[in-house]
Amino acid sequence: MIEFLLPPFIACLILTSIHAYLGIHVIERKVIFVDLSLAQIAALGTALGVVAGFEYGGTVSYLSGLFFTLIGATIFALTRMKDERVPQEAIIGIVYAVSAAGFILIMDRAPEGAEQIKGMLIGSILFVDWLTVLKTGILYGLIGLFHFVYREKFITISVNPEKAFRQGISVRLWDFLFYVSFGFVVTSSVLIAGVLLVFSFLVVPSVLAVLFSENFRTRLIIGWGVGFLASLLGIIASVTFDLPTGAAIVCTFGVLLIAAGVVRSFKKNSR
User: Fold this and answer.
1) What is the total count of domains within the chain?
2) DSSP tag of 79
3) Is residue 271 part of a domain?
């Protein structure tokens, strides 16, 4: 049993490692649904590849999803302005709605479309193999290294964009690089875990981290811990009660968030 559960658990840890970090940036930028939007764009591109006759999860369908995700990254980078008349979150929401509608229209024409819609939403992380885990780990490691090398620029643009503008940093360029790297992560994660679980890995650990710390590094450690715990408990619940693994982990994230909210409320009242 342990040998069967080890690959999906390691995959969850890899997803947590990069998504918890990116999620803190997303929270600071106040573009909470950017991950869900990019994930839906990736699903749309992948769906086009599937309808064209290419295998779901194969190279061509992956590249199709990546191409559409990079288009989305470009849109989000270009729509962030110093003085916004239209909030960027509105643009992100519109892109999500259009992508979701396009995805449904395309998959409606595909054989077994309903099953594939379900698969892209909740994923099949329980059946991930070691080769996928290895490739995903290498890709995310390279992206993590890129963000580590240029961490000062990425953190400044997310936490204090006004300071970045004053320092003469090309915010639009670094925004584009952020969203492109984000797009690589999301496209790969959706194939493994599905749209809903990818969104949960990004947002829930980050929200919990922000609730309990102001420090970026401390937030990252908290996010990693929450992702680890939710993955472990969700997979155990999935196997024990014969539940869809992705959905079980998402619900576990929800329970942890509620519990953390109660704890924080008690701490505030005690003060």
Assistant:
1) 1
2) T
3) no
